[in-house]
Amino acid sequence: MNETYELRTGETHIEVHKFFPGTILFATMAALVLQASPELRFKRATRVENACATGSAAVHQGLKAIAGHSARIVLVVGVEQMTATPAPEIGRNLLKASYVREEAEIDGGFAGIFGKIASLYFQKWGDQSDALAMIAAKNHKNGVGNPYAQMRKDLGYEFCRTESEKNPFVAGPLKRTDCSLVSDGAAAVVLADVETALRLGRAVVFRAAEHVQDFLPMSKRDILKFDGCAIAWQRALAKSGLALGDLSFVETHDCFTIAELIEYEAMGLTKQGQGAVAIQEGWTQKDGRLPVNPSGGLKAKGHPIGATGVSMHVMTAMQLTGAAGDLQLPRAELGGIFNMGGAAVANYVSILERIK
Question: Which residues are catalytic?
Answer without folding.
Answer: 52, 303
